[in-house]
Structures are given as structure tokens and as C-alpha cells.
Design brief:
By secondary structure, this protein is mostly helical. It has 13 helices and six strands. Strand 5 and strand 6 (about 300-305) form a beta hairpin.
């Protein structure tokens, strides 16, 4: 009988201690500290890592208790990437629920090869900034492709500054020095890289496309790059795209300085924002005898040193 009472007593004691342990873990770290700090959750970040960061930044008292609260509320999959304004005066339940809504920032992704009008659409959709305003102020080719975390109330100037700063960080002084050693300035490299970005689908083709472009420039040959004509033609209402899929002979006659079928040398500027791989392809372009390339139906490029070989490639890869 005594043993039974003892076991019941132990059980009740464990329940009380567990309750107090849990209760203490839910309390604010400091209820009198009303200051706030920005807490950032990265895309794809695990709950375990989020809990560790909350503890490290002294926003929760107990990692185990917070983890149990998230499980209890069933919100593990509802926690959003972004940044949040949290305070040590918030209890664990408040913090857990805050992480499911109210992010201060918005994630946007700019992929390689977009022209500024396409980036304007992304910015307008997420921040309500008129596309025409973005297009007026954005610099083609320098809207570096990346994933950005931008304040939801950001102005156009703020967004452009964030993109510009990232460009300067990624295209650093080391790369700029290599450009000079190649005998090219930044504008020329970004312009050539933008052509590569639109023309080369596969990584292994980029260096050789760069070589073809540089070889043609040296020989004062017209570049004859389809992507520049696509850029000149602009938005295609029928296809609902900025890049016309199938060019006609009439398209190749479009009167634009961007039309490299009509005008020798580089176009007046970039035709899209290239990624780092295409930029480095210009700098590291190998010395080859290639002057031509043709794309097969899978987007793989086939290179040729002379026109007869190029014609053979056309018959082989495009006229099957």
C-alpha cells in the first residue's frame, strides 16, 4: 500500500515538475525589455536550426520547450522564410505564431537572362511599383541574377540600390582587373556576357560562344546573333513573351542598332542581365578558330571554323 502511494506521489511530482519546466520555458526571456531585433529565417532553413538561432539570440528561454510548442500548435510547416521583428518581452507562444506571418521582407528571385522589363514585372507584382517607373531607372544588364530578401515597404530607389550593391559585390575588383587584362571594359564584358546568356543553354557551351563573339569582333564580322534581334523586336503579344521564339527573314531586317545582322560590332548595350558564369566566360574565353555555331533541337551548340563546315552543321542538326 505504501509503495502504491509512493509511486503515485512520484508520478504527481514528475507531472508538477514537468509542468513547471514547460511553463517556465514559455515565459519571455525578459518581460521588461521592450526592445526589438530583426530575426531572419533563410529559405529552406530547418526548425532545429531556427530554434538554435532563437536561443543564441536570447529570444527564447528553452529550446526543447519551444520545439514542443511548435509541434503542439502544428505550425512547423507554416513557418515562413523572411525576417521578423522580435522582442525578449514576447513569450514563446507569441514568437512561434509570429514566425508564421508578418514577415518584414519579401523574397524575390531574378533568374539569369531576364531583360529589365521582365524584372520590372517581378518587382511590380511583389511591391506594387509601376513597371514603367522601374524600366525608366533600371540599368539593363546590371540587375544581377540572384535571390533577394527585400523590405516589403521598399521604394524603387531602395530596390535598385540593393540590386546594384549585389552586382558590385559579385563583380568585384578582381574580376574587373581581369577584364582590363583582357582589354575589355565593364560595359563591353556585360554586353558580351548578356549575349552568351541568351545564346548558350549549357554551361560547357558558354566559353566557346565567348570565343566566337570575340573572334568575330576582331575580324570586324557582324555577330549575327538571334538574341539581339529578339531584344530589338520587344514584347510579342501573340506569344506573351519578350523573346520571340521563331525569327523570320523579315525579323532579321528590323531597323535597330541592336540588330547584329545589320550592324557590325557589339549592340549599344546589354540585352539582359547575365549570371556570373557568363561574365566569367568572357574573361576566360579560350583562343579558338571558331567563327560559327548552330543550336540543335535540344539547345546544344555545335561550332565551326568556316562557313562550309557551318553549313554542314546546319544540315545535320537543323534539317533532320
Amino acid at each position: 500500500m505504501k509503495k502504491g502511494f509512493f509511486l503515485i506521489f512520484i508520478f504527481i511530482l514528475i507531472v508538477i515538475i514537468s509542468y513547471l519546466y514547460f511553463k517556465e520555458g514559455t515565459l519571455p526571456v525578459n518581460k521588461n525589455d521592450k526592445s526589438t531585433k530583426i530575426f531572419v529565417i533563410q529559405k529552406g532553413e530547418s526548425l532545429n536550426n531556427i530554434v538554435k538561432k532563437l536561443s543564441r539570440e536570447q529570444l527564447i528561454r528553452n529550446k526543447i520547450v519551444f520545439y514542443l510548442i511548435v509541434k503542439q500548435l502544428g505550425i512547423e510547416k507554416k513557418i515562413q522564410a523572411g525576417d521578423y521583428r522580435l522582442s525578449p518581452s514576447m513569450d514563446a507562444y507569441q514568437i512561434a505564431k509570429t514566425l508564421t506571418h508578418g514577415t518584414l521582407d519579401i523574397w524575390i528571385t531574378i533568374i539569369e537572362g531576364l531583360r529589365k522589363e521582365e524584372v520590372a514585372q517581378i518587382v511590380s507584382k511583389n511591391f506594387g511599383i509601376p513597371e514603367i517607373e522601374f524600366i525608366k531607372k533600371a540599368k539593363e544588364g546590371f540587375l544581377f541574377p540572384d535571390t533577394y530578401l527585400i523590405p516589403k515597404d521598399a521604394t524603387l530607389e531602395t530596390i535598385l540600390t540593393i540590386l546594384e550593391n549585389n552586382f558590385q559585390r559579385r563583380v568585384d575588383d578582381k574580376l574587373k582587373k581581369q577584364m582590363q587584362e583582357k582589354g575589355l571594359n565593364l560595359e563591353e564584358v556585360i554586353t558580351i556576357a548578356s549575349l552568351i546568356e541568351r545564346e548558350a543553354k549549357f554551361e560547357e557551351d558558354r566559353l566557346l560562344v565567348a570565343s566566337v563573339i570575340l573572334n568575330r569582333l576582331k575580324k570586324k564580322m557582324k555577330l549575327e546573333i538571334d538574341a539581339t534581334v529578339q531584344y530589338a523586336l520587344g514584347y510579342q503579344t501573340g506569344e506573351k513573351t519578350w523573346w520571340k521564339k521563331n525569327l523570320t527573314r523579315q525579323d532579321l531586317e528590323v531597323d535597330s542598332l541592336y540588330n547584329t545582322y545589320k550592324f557590325e560590332g557589339l549592340p549599344p548595350g546589354p540585352i539582359c542581365s547575365p549570371g556570373l558564369s557568363s561574365i566569367k566566360a568572357v574573361i576566360n574565353a579560350p583562343n579558338t578558330d571558331y567563327f560559327f555555331y548552330v543550336s540543335d533541337k535540344n539547345g546544344k551548340l555545335h561550332f565551326a571554323k568556316d562557313f562550309p563546315t557551318h553549313n554542314k552543321n546546319i544540315k545535320k542538326y537543323l534539317m533532320k
